[in-house]
Amino acid sequence: MADIVSERIDEILDRYEQALHDADSPLTTTTDRWHQARRQAEAILGECVRALGLTTAEPPDPHAPTRELGIDRAHQQVLVADSIRAGTLLWRAAVPVLREVLTTEGPEGRERLPDALEALHEAISIRLYIGSVAHEHVRLAGRAPAPAREHRGGSRPVARPENITGREWEVLKCASRALSNREIAKELAISEPTVKTHLRKIFRKLAATSRVDAINKVGLAPQLPLEG
Fold first, then answer.
1. DSSP states of 24-53
2. By C-alpha distance, which of 226, 44, 199, 215 is closest to 133?
3. How far is the C-alpha of 76 from the C-alpha of 66, rounded, in Å?
4. Is 64 helix (H, G, I), strand (E, B) or coil?
5. Whole-number Å distance between alpha carbons of 30 and 35
6. Second label for 2, Cα 20 to 30 Å away, from 81, 115, 144, 182?
7. Are 119 and 50 in contact (CB under 8 A)?
8. Is the separation of the CB atoms in 214 and 206 below 8 Å?
């Protein structure tokens, strides 16, 4: 299956590039920008490969290239909206191919499909979040400092909502640092399925549709260093 998935990843990237061109995305206006977008897409698709158990290799800091990309796009005045649209286009390019590959692999492949799609969604969401935070750091760096009163107010700890348990709060704070389910599980010494269960409960209690939505609703500030 590894060879088949690797071959189809190239097809997904071709579809993704064409979709960006069709959408007049600024991410394909220069060769350098497309190479950056392609590397980002390859990293996201790599999460799907790992979710399928085809490889366990991981870069030492998977977030560093995304932070650098967010900073670079901010300097190039590429809007966050363009990155969000790119994430949507990558999803649309990847899902039909992954579904076709895995469903033709028989029962085992069909069983792996939900995990692959969940990994794809998580990888896109986390990287969009990291890139957006890095983009915002650059934007705010060019503004005049806020009054001291605002700084003090912004530094106050956020209170845990009454309907969120202590453990769920720990999971949500980890999510605000853009940790993956695997990383959250390792940090909190719990299983990855338990992390997923906590996130589902958090989304239901907060009527949230995603990690970012949940983080925004409780007022948690992003906790991403620009170096790392």
1. T-GGGSSHHHHHHHHHHHHHHHHHHHHHTT
2. 226
3. 15
4. helix
5. 9
6. 182
7. yes
8. yes
Are the C-beta atoms of residues 169 and 183 closer than 8 Å to each other?
no
What are the pLDDT digits (tens) for 26-43?
999 999 999 999 999 998
Cα 199 from chain centre: 15
What single letter denotes the amino acid at residue 153? G
| 202: pLDDT strictly greater than 90 | yes
Tally Cβ neighbours within 10 Å of residue 131: 30
Q: CA-CA distance, 101 to 103, in Å (whole number)?
A: 6
Q: Using an 8 Å Cβ cutoff, are 95 and 117 in contact?
A: yes
Closest by CA to 5, choosing from 137, 106, 102, 79, is 102
Residues in the chain: 228
How high is the pLDDT of residue 105?
79
